[in-house]
Amino acid sequence: MSDTPGAQWNAGDTEADAKSHLLSPSEEMAKLGQSMRPLIAYGEGIHVVDAHGRRIIDGPAGMWCTQIGYGRKEIADAVSAQALKLSYNSPWYTTNSPSAELARRIAEVTPGDLNRVFFTTGGSTAVDSALRFTEFYNNVLGRPEKKHIIVRREGYHGSTSLTAACSGRSFNWQNFDIASPRITFISSPNIRQAPGLSEAQFLDQLVREFEDTIAKIGSDKVAAFLAEPLLASGGVIIPPKGYHARIKAVCEEHDIIYISDEVVTAFGRCGEWFASEKVFGVVPDIITFAKGVTSGYVPLGGFAVSERLIAKVSGENAKGSYYSNGYTYSSHPVSCAAALANMDVIEKDGILEHVRDVAVHFAEGLRSLKGLPHVADIRVEGLVGCVECLVDPSSPEVTDRDKKLGGRIDTHCFDLGLLVRPLGNICVLSPPLIITKAEIDQMIGILRQGILKAAADLKEPVAA
Ligand code: PMP
Asked: Which terms are listed as keywords in the entry (predicted)?
């Protein structure tokens, strides 16, 4: 590794430091400090390179975020130039030029009249701030009772107390005290959980459940509906066609704010700047974003809110109402400069058009895995997709054996040179958006081998 970007790096020291001092966001605490996850030395394009110099395709694009790939000099230069020019200013009583320009450029590509942009430090703070905006909104309008939030099981919205409480995956709840009486869960739009129903029947059932839930709580008490366009961390669950538009119509009827959590889908993942309108047919009241806004080079998130909502709580309508909510690092100049450079690269390289082109190939590749042993379902939209594997593919239940099977596939893929996002029995791929058709073939080929190897393992007695 002498002349590689990771040459100065001592893997032994890093391993010792990590084992003794790092607490990562996901730890089996009984084994804290005993094992080591793969050490990533550096990244190049769609690849990461580990401590042994092994090049691995970054199947999940980090965490659905490294849109333009690793090692882009344009971003490094923008970060460096901004850090030298103005590394920080307080967003509470000053303004910087990168954040103002970025707000304008984001407003230009959001749907509808979502033209006012608030910047945060990442996805959780983006969703948290959007929800807190709805509190502010209803308080200013003199409706303190209208505070309830409706969310879906299997959704994921972040790791602050409020956003974790809005997340419907049980392991986010284990050992944390986040339950809130003002949050209500409705069904995930996962058709696998409704055997025997057609897509249209399932959609009617979901809309009815939403209406019934509002009626039960009282529409004068429901403030917001919060939803990802597709449930990403919940297992790439794509709702029935027309779902979001139907739900939005119900929201409008009851004066409920529709928040689209586009932390995963924005900035190109589905071939558009934002997926809500152009891919999923809905113009939300608020859209949250993070991840792809900087392609993961530096942390940044935010939300865009409609002029219609802003008008109701500003100017003549808001005498004496002070909006005080934000972060030391809201509108951070270096992060915003990185995001501007990222948007430039996406435009200059035609990345949205590229995604729309290669997404067809990606979908065909994933669907070609149907028929392999244990493959129960394949779901794909844009450059995000998954293969759901079950020991018995006809079973509606997901057991620990299924999760072990998923883990085996991930491990085989890693050994063969492909990182797969581990999500229990679901193998997720959401590669950097610059991936070529040949690289997609390579990625799918490795996943195919990983599934076949894991299937062969299952024929052997599985170690407990
Ligand atoms: N919303 C969605 C839809 C997400 O997928 C995530 C993170 N995976 C978040 C919010 C939270 O973002 P962050 O981890 O940047 O705080």
From this structure: Aminotransferase, Transferase
